[in-house]
Protein backbone atom coordinates (compact mmCIF):
# COMPACT_ATOMS: atom_id res chain seq x y z
CA UNK A 1 0.00 0.00 0.00
CA UNK A 2 1.43 3.36 -0.94
CA UNK A 3 2.02 5.98 1.75
CA UNK A 4 -0.86 8.39 2.07
CA UNK A 5 -3.51 6.05 0.57
CA UNK A 6 -6.67 5.93 2.74
CA UNK A 7 -6.83 2.60 4.54
CA UNK A 8 -8.66 -0.03 2.55
CA UNK A 9 -8.95 1.84 -0.74
CA UNK A 10 -8.65 -0.36 -3.86
CA UNK A 11 -5.18 -0.56 -5.37
CA UNK A 12 -6.18 0.94 -8.72
CA UNK A 13 -3.70 3.74 -9.18
CA UNK A 14 -2.57 6.69 -7.14
CA UNK A 15 -4.98 9.15 -5.73
CA UNK A 16 -4.43 12.40 -7.65
CA UNK A 17 -2.10 15.22 -7.00
CA UNK A 18 -5.24 16.98 -5.84
CA UNK A 19 -4.81 15.19 -2.49
CA UNK A 20 -2.63 18.21 -1.74
CA UNK A 21 -5.52 20.29 -3.01
CA UNK A 22 -7.81 18.44 -0.58
CA UNK A 23 -5.49 19.12 2.33
CA UNK A 24 -5.29 22.77 1.35
CA UNK A 25 -9.06 22.93 1.04
CA UNK A 26 -9.46 21.43 4.48
CA UNK A 27 -8.39 24.67 6.08
CA UNK A 28 -10.70 26.72 3.90
CA UNK A 29 -14.40 27.41 4.09
CA UNK A 30 -16.98 28.05 6.71
CA UNK A 31 -15.09 26.99 9.86
CA UNK A 32 -12.22 29.35 9.10
CA UNK A 33 -14.62 32.19 8.42
CA UNK A 34 -16.48 31.58 11.67
CA UNK A 35 -13.22 31.95 13.60
CA UNK A 36 -12.11 34.97 11.61
CA UNK A 37 -15.33 36.92 11.95
CA UNK A 38 -16.82 35.91 15.30
CA UNK A 39 -15.39 38.92 17.09
CA UNK A 40 -16.88 41.32 14.56
CA UNK A 41 -20.54 40.29 14.86
CA UNK A 42 -21.42 42.33 17.95
CA UNK A 43 -19.66 45.48 16.75
CA UNK A 44 -21.36 45.31 13.36
CA UNK A 45 -24.78 44.85 14.90
CA UNK A 46 -24.31 47.80 17.27
CA UNK A 47 -23.25 50.08 14.43
CA UNK A 48 -26.17 48.91 12.35
CA UNK A 49 -28.71 49.93 14.99
CA UNK A 50 -27.66 53.54 14.47
CA UNK A 51 -28.01 53.23 10.72
CA UNK A 52 -31.40 51.53 10.60
CA UNK A 53 -33.47 54.68 10.61
CA UNK A 54 -31.70 55.99 7.50
CA UNK A 55 -31.44 52.78 5.51
CA UNK A 56 -34.51 52.09 3.40
CA UNK A 57 -37.60 53.81 2.08
CA UNK A 58 -40.38 53.51 4.69
CA UNK A 59 -43.36 51.51 3.44
CA UNK A 60 -41.67 50.31 0.25
CA UNK A 61 -41.12 46.54 0.19
CA UNK A 62 -37.57 45.22 0.11
CA UNK A 63 -37.15 42.48 -2.49
CA UNK A 64 -34.97 39.47 -1.73
CA UNK A 65 -34.22 37.99 -5.14
CA UNK A 66 -33.71 34.22 -5.27
CA UNK A 67 -32.08 33.18 -8.57
CA UNK A 68 -33.55 29.68 -8.36
CA UNK A 69 -37.06 28.14 -8.54
CA UNK A 70 -39.41 28.04 -5.54
CA UNK A 71 -39.10 25.09 -3.19
CA UNK A 72 -35.32 24.69 -3.16
CA UNK A 73 -33.04 25.30 -0.20
CA UNK A 74 -32.21 28.89 -1.20
CA UNK A 75 -35.91 29.68 -1.55
CA UNK A 76 -36.78 28.10 1.81
CA UNK A 77 -34.10 30.07 3.65
CA UNK A 78 -35.02 33.28 1.81
CA UNK A 79 -38.66 32.98 2.90
CA UNK A 80 -37.71 32.35 6.51
CA UNK A 81 -35.33 35.29 6.40
CA UNK A 82 -37.83 37.62 4.72
CA UNK A 83 -40.60 36.79 7.17
CA UNK A 84 -38.42 37.33 10.21
CA UNK A 85 -36.87 40.55 8.84
CA UNK A 86 -40.40 41.86 8.25
CA UNK A 87 -41.41 41.04 11.83
CA UNK A 88 -38.35 42.74 13.27
CA UNK A 89 -38.39 45.89 11.14
CA UNK A 90 -42.08 46.35 10.38
CA UNK A 91 -41.09 46.85 6.75
CA UNK A 92 -42.24 44.30 4.19
CA UNK A 93 -39.56 41.96 2.78
CA UNK A 94 -40.72 39.79 -0.11
CA UNK A 95 -39.07 36.95 -2.04
CA UNK A 96 -38.75 37.37 -5.80
CA UNK A 97 -37.82 34.15 -7.65
CA UNK A 98 -35.95 34.85 -10.89
CA UNK A 99 -34.68 31.45 -11.96
CA UNK A 100 -32.71 30.40 -15.00
CA UNK A 101 -29.23 29.43 -16.22
CA UNK A 102 -28.20 27.99 -12.83
CA UNK A 103 -28.73 31.29 -11.10
CA UNK A 104 -27.23 33.60 -13.72
CA UNK A 105 -30.48 35.38 -14.65
CA UNK A 106 -31.46 36.38 -11.13
CA UNK A 107 -27.90 37.22 -10.13
CA UNK A 108 -27.44 39.52 -13.11
CA UNK A 109 -30.80 41.16 -12.36
CA UNK A 110 -29.58 42.21 -8.92
CA UNK A 111 -26.18 43.28 -10.22
CA UNK A 112 -28.00 45.71 -12.55
CA UNK A 113 -30.62 46.83 -10.02
CA UNK A 114 -30.70 50.30 -8.50
CA UNK A 115 -28.39 50.45 -5.45
CA UNK A 116 -31.05 52.00 -3.24
CA UNK A 117 -31.31 49.40 -0.47
CA UNK A 118 -34.61 48.02 -1.77
CA UNK A 119 -33.13 45.01 -3.63
CA UNK A 120 -31.16 42.18 -2.05
CA UNK A 121 -29.92 38.84 -3.37
CA UNK A 122 -29.72 35.50 -1.58
CA UNK A 123 -27.26 33.27 -3.40
CA UNK A 124 -25.17 30.13 -3.07
CA UNK A 125 -22.20 28.34 -4.70
CA UNK A 126 -23.22 28.66 -8.38
CA UNK A 127 -22.72 32.42 -8.25
CA UNK A 128 -18.95 31.79 -8.13
CA UNK A 129 -18.75 28.38 -9.85
CA UNK A 130 -20.50 29.78 -12.96
CA UNK A 131 -17.56 32.13 -13.56
CA UNK A 132 -14.98 29.47 -14.54
CA UNK A 133 -17.58 26.92 -15.66
CA UNK A 134 -19.31 29.10 -18.24
CA UNK A 135 -16.23 31.05 -19.28
CA UNK A 136 -18.12 34.33 -19.24
CA UNK A 137 -21.00 35.52 -17.09
CA UNK A 138 -22.69 38.95 -17.06
CA UNK A 139 -21.60 39.80 -13.54
CA UNK A 140 -18.57 39.73 -11.26
CA UNK A 141 -19.39 38.01 -7.94
CA UNK A 142 -17.02 40.30 -6.03
CA UNK A 143 -17.06 43.62 -7.89
CA UNK A 144 -20.78 43.86 -8.72
CA UNK A 145 -22.17 43.25 -5.22
CA UNK A 146 -22.03 44.77 -1.77
CA UNK A 147 -21.85 41.97 0.85
CA UNK A 148 -24.43 41.93 3.64
CA UNK A 149 -24.19 38.65 5.58
CA UNK A 150 -23.44 34.95 5.45
CA UNK A 151 -26.79 33.76 6.79
CA UNK A 152 -26.61 29.95 6.83
CA UNK A 153 -24.86 26.77 5.73
CA UNK A 154 -26.22 23.31 4.93
CA UNK A 155 -24.73 19.88 4.32
CA UNK A 156 -25.75 17.44 1.60
CA UNK A 157 -25.94 13.66 1.63
CA UNK A 158 -24.53 11.25 -0.92
CA UNK A 159 -27.24 8.68 -1.60
CA UNK A 160 -27.63 5.76 -3.99
CA UNK A 161 -30.65 3.96 -5.40
CA UNK A 162 -31.24 0.68 -3.51
CA UNK A 163 -30.38 -1.28 -6.65
CA UNK A 164 -26.77 -0.06 -6.47
CA UNK A 165 -24.64 -2.79 -4.81
CA UNK A 166 -22.67 -0.42 -2.59
CA UNK A 167 -23.26 0.24 1.08
CA UNK A 168 -20.40 2.64 1.80
CA UNK A 169 -18.07 4.99 -0.01
CA UNK A 170 -15.28 2.45 -0.39
CA UNK A 171 -17.63 0.02 -2.16
CA UNK A 172 -19.13 2.77 -4.31
CA UNK A 173 -15.73 3.96 -5.51
CA UNK A 174 -14.63 0.39 -6.22
CA UNK A 175 -17.81 -0.16 -8.24
CA UNK A 176 -17.28 3.05 -10.20
CA UNK A 177 -13.67 2.13 -10.97
CA UNK A 178 -14.69 -1.34 -12.13
CA UNK A 179 -17.24 0.14 -14.54
CA UNK A 180 -15.83 3.45 -15.84
CA UNK A 181 -18.60 5.73 -17.09
CA UNK A 182 -21.35 3.21 -16.32
CA UNK A 183 -22.57 4.77 -13.08
CA UNK A 184 -24.29 8.14 -13.33
CA UNK A 185 -25.40 10.90 -10.99
CA UNK A 186 -28.08 13.58 -11.16
CA UNK A 187 -27.76 17.27 -10.45
CA UNK A 188 -29.91 20.36 -10.77
CA UNK A 189 -27.63 21.68 -13.52
CA UNK A 190 -23.99 22.41 -14.24
CA UNK A 191 -22.42 24.39 -11.42
CA UNK A 192 -25.25 23.52 -9.01
CA UNK A 193 -24.66 22.35 -5.46
CA UNK A 194 -25.18 18.64 -6.31
CA UNK A 195 -22.77 18.97 -9.26
CA UNK A 196 -19.86 20.44 -7.30
CA UNK A 197 -19.39 17.76 -4.58
CA UNK A 198 -19.87 14.98 -7.13
CA UNK A 199 -17.06 16.31 -9.29
CA UNK A 200 -14.92 16.87 -6.20
CA UNK A 201 -15.43 13.21 -5.23
CA UNK A 202 -14.60 12.05 -8.76
CA UNK A 203 -11.40 14.08 -8.71
CA UNK A 204 -10.19 12.77 -5.36
CA UNK A 205 -10.99 9.14 -6.16
CA UNK A 206 -10.07 9.17 -9.85
CA UNK A 207 -13.42 7.61 -10.66
CA UNK A 208 -15.43 8.04 -13.85
CA UNK A 209 -19.12 8.71 -13.10
CA UNK A 210 -21.38 10.32 -15.70
CA UNK A 211 -23.10 13.63 -14.95
CA UNK A 212 -26.81 13.84 -15.85
CA UNK A 213 -28.09 17.41 -15.30
CA UNK A 214 -31.79 18.07 -14.68
CA UNK A 215 -33.80 21.28 -14.56
CA UNK A 216 -33.98 21.71 -10.82
CA UNK A 217 -33.44 19.89 -7.55
CA UNK A 218 -36.86 18.21 -7.62
CA UNK A 219 -36.29 16.40 -10.94
CA UNK A 220 -32.75 15.46 -9.85
CA UNK A 221 -34.14 13.83 -6.70
CA UNK A 222 -36.92 12.12 -8.64
CA UNK A 223 -34.34 10.68 -11.04
CA UNK A 224 -32.40 8.87 -8.32
CA UNK A 225 -35.61 7.79 -6.58
CA UNK A 226 -36.83 6.23 -9.81
CA UNK A 227 -33.53 4.58 -10.64
CA UNK A 228 -32.94 6.72 -13.73
CA UNK A 229 -29.56 7.52 -12.19
CA UNK A 230 -27.51 5.63 -9.64
CA UNK A 231 -26.59 8.31 -7.14
CA UNK A 232 -26.73 11.97 -6.23
CA UNK A 233 -25.74 14.56 -3.64
CA UNK A 234 -29.03 15.88 -2.24
CA UNK A 235 -29.77 18.46 0.46
CA UNK A 236 -30.59 16.89 3.81
CA UNK A 237 -34.06 18.37 4.10
CA UNK A 238 -35.07 16.92 0.74
CA UNK A 239 -33.47 13.49 1.07
CA UNK A 240 -33.99 12.41 4.69
CA UNK A 241 -37.65 11.33 4.34
CA UNK A 242 -36.65 9.03 1.48
CA UNK A 243 -33.69 7.65 3.42
CA UNK A 244 -35.90 6.93 6.42
CA UNK A 245 -38.42 5.19 4.13
CA UNK A 246 -35.52 3.14 2.65
CA UNK A 247 -36.24 4.43 -0.84
CA UNK A 248 -32.65 5.65 -0.95
CA UNK A 249 -29.50 4.33 0.75
CA UNK A 250 -27.28 6.86 2.56
CA UNK A 251 -23.55 6.69 1.90
CA UNK A 252 -22.07 9.80 3.58
CA UNK A 253 -22.69 13.44 4.47
CA UNK A 254 -20.57 16.18 2.96
CA UNK A 255 -20.01 18.28 6.08
CA UNK A 256 -16.88 18.26 8.23
CA UNK A 257 -18.81 16.64 11.11
CA UNK A 258 -21.73 14.24 11.31
CA UNK A 259 -25.10 15.93 11.31
CA UNK A 260 -27.61 15.84 14.14
CA UNK A 261 -30.41 14.64 11.88
CA UNK A 262 -28.47 11.60 10.67
CA UNK A 263 -25.95 10.73 13.38
CA UNK A 264 -25.32 7.21 12.04
CA UNK A 265 -24.26 8.41 8.59
CA UNK A 266 -20.48 9.02 8.38
CA UNK A 267 -18.85 12.02 6.76
CA UNK A 268 -17.02 11.73 3.44
CA UNK A 269 -13.76 12.29 5.33
CA UNK A 270 -14.52 9.47 7.78
CA UNK A 271 -15.37 7.26 4.81
CA UNK A 272 -11.89 7.52 3.33
CA UNK A 273 -11.54 10.98 1.75
CA UNK A 274 -9.66 13.18 4.22
CA UNK A 275 -10.04 16.82 3.29
CA UNK A 276 -13.43 16.38 1.64
CA UNK A 277 -15.79 19.04 2.93
CA UNK A 278 -18.67 20.67 1.14
CA UNK A 279 -21.37 22.75 2.77
CA UNK A 280 -23.78 24.84 0.77
CA UNK A 281 -23.59 28.44 1.92
CA UNK A 282 -26.19 31.16 1.62
CA UNK A 283 -25.05 34.76 1.33
CA UNK A 284 -27.11 37.94 1.34
CA UNK A 285 -25.83 40.69 -0.95
CA UNK A 286 -26.94 43.99 -2.49
CA UNK A 287 -25.99 45.75 -5.73
CA UNK A 288 -22.58 47.42 -5.63
CA UNK A 289 -22.88 51.05 -4.65
CA UNK A 290 -25.69 50.51 -2.16
CA UNK A 291 -25.23 53.15 0.60
CA UNK A 292 -23.42 51.94 3.68
CA UNK A 293 -26.31 52.80 6.04
CA UNK A 294 -28.57 50.51 4.01
CA UNK A 295 -25.98 47.71 4.12
CA UNK A 296 -25.54 48.14 7.88
CA UNK A 297 -29.29 48.09 8.46
CA UNK A 298 -29.80 45.00 6.28
CA UNK A 299 -26.94 43.28 8.09
CA UNK A 300 -28.42 44.04 11.47
CA UNK A 301 -31.81 42.68 10.43
CA UNK A 302 -30.29 39.55 8.89
CA UNK A 303 -28.17 38.82 11.97
CA UNK A 304 -31.14 39.31 14.30
CA UNK A 305 -33.35 37.18 12.07
CA UNK A 306 -30.94 34.28 11.78
CA UNK A 307 -30.08 34.32 15.48
CA UNK A 308 -33.71 34.20 16.58
CA UNK A 309 -34.58 30.90 18.31
CA UNK A 310 -37.48 30.24 15.92
CA UNK A 311 -35.35 30.48 12.80
CA UNK A 312 -32.42 28.57 14.28
CA UNK A 313 -34.70 25.71 15.36
CA UNK A 314 -36.51 25.58 12.03
CA UNK A 315 -33.29 25.46 10.03
CA UNK A 316 -31.78 22.87 12.36
CA UNK A 317 -34.75 20.60 11.63
CA UNK A 318 -34.05 21.05 7.94
CA UNK A 319 -30.37 20.21 8.19
CA UNK A 320 -29.09 23.78 8.03
CA UNK A 321 -27.19 25.97 10.46
CA UNK A 322 -28.29 29.57 10.95
CA UNK A 323 -25.37 32.01 11.12
CA UNK A 324 -25.51 35.77 10.58
CA UNK A 325 -22.09 37.39 10.13
CA UNK A 326 -20.60 40.79 9.32
CA UNK A 327 -20.30 41.73 5.62
CA UNK A 328 -16.56 41.03 5.68
CA UNK A 329 -17.26 37.31 6.06
CA UNK A 330 -19.09 37.27 2.73
CA UNK A 331 -16.19 38.83 0.85
CA UNK A 332 -13.68 36.42 2.40
CA UNK A 333 -15.91 33.46 1.60
CA UNK A 334 -16.55 34.42 -2.03
CA UNK A 335 -12.87 35.00 -2.70
CA UNK A 336 -11.79 31.67 -1.21
CA UNK A 337 -14.59 29.73 -2.91
CA UNK A 338 -13.83 31.32 -6.28
CA UNK A 339 -10.22 30.12 -6.01
CA UNK A 340 -11.23 26.68 -4.75
CA UNK A 341 -13.83 25.84 -7.40
CA UNK A 342 -11.99 27.52 -10.27
CA UNK A 343 -9.19 25.09 -9.54
CA UNK A 344 -11.62 22.16 -9.60
CA UNK A 345 -13.19 23.28 -12.89
CA UNK A 346 -9.85 23.78 -14.62
CA UNK A 347 -8.18 20.62 -13.30
CA UNK A 348 -11.10 18.51 -14.52
CA UNK A 349 -11.85 20.50 -17.69
CA UNK A 350 -15.50 20.93 -16.66
CA UNK A 351 -17.89 22.70 -18.99
CA UNK A 352 -21.45 23.93 -18.66
CA UNK A 353 -23.83 21.34 -20.11
Describe the structure.
- The protein has 353 residues and is α/β, with parallel strands linked by helices.
- Helices cover 42% and strands 17% of the residues.
- The chain is built from 13 helices and 10 strands.
- Strands 1, 2, 3, 4, 5, 6, 7, 8, 9 and 10 form a 10-stranded mixed sheet that branches.
Name a few traits of the molecule.
single chain; 353 residues; alpha/beta; ten-stranded mixed beta sheet; 10 strands; disordered N terminus
Record field, number of beta strands = 10
Quaternary organization = single chain
The percent of residues in helical segments reads 40-55%
**Tally of contiguous helical segments:** 13
**What is the overall silhouette?**
globular
**Alpha-carbon Rg, integer:** 20 Å
How far the N terminus sits from the C terminus, by CA atoms, comes to 38 Å
- Low confidence ranges: 1-8, 10-28, 36-56
User: Secondary-structure element order, as H and E?
Assistant: HHHEHEHEHEHEHEHEHEEHHEH
Summary of the model, kept short:
Strand 1, helix 4 (73-89) and strand 2 (93-97) form a beta-alpha-beta unit. The chain has 353 residues and is α/β, with parallel strands linked by helices. The protein has helices at residues 18-26, 30-37, 41-51, 73-89, 104-111, 126-134, 169-178, 195-205, 217-225, 236-244, 292-307, 309-317, 327-347; strands spanning 62-66, 93-97, 119-123, 145-160, 184-187, 210-213, 231-235, 249-253, 279-287, 320-322.
How are the SSEs placed, and which strands pair?
Blueprint: H1 18-26, H2 30-37, H3 41-51, E1 62-66, H4 73-89, E2 93-97, H5 104-111, E3 119-123, H6 126-134, E4 145-160, H7 169-178, E5 184-187, H8 195-205, E6 210-213, H9 217-225, E7 231-235, H10 236-244, E8 249-253, E9 279-287, H11 292-307, H12 309-317, E10 320-322, H13 327-347
Helix pairs in contact: 2-13, 3-11, 4-11, 6-13
Amino acid sequence: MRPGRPCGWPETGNLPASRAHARASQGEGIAMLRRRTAGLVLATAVCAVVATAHAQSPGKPVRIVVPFPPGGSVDVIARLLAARMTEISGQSHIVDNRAGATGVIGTEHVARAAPDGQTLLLNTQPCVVNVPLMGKVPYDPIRDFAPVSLVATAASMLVVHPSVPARNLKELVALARSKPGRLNYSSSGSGSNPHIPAEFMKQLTRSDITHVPYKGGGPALTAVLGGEVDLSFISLVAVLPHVEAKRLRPIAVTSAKRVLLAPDVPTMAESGLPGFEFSAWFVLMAPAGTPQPAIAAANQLAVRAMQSPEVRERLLKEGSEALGTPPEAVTALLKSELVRWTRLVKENNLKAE
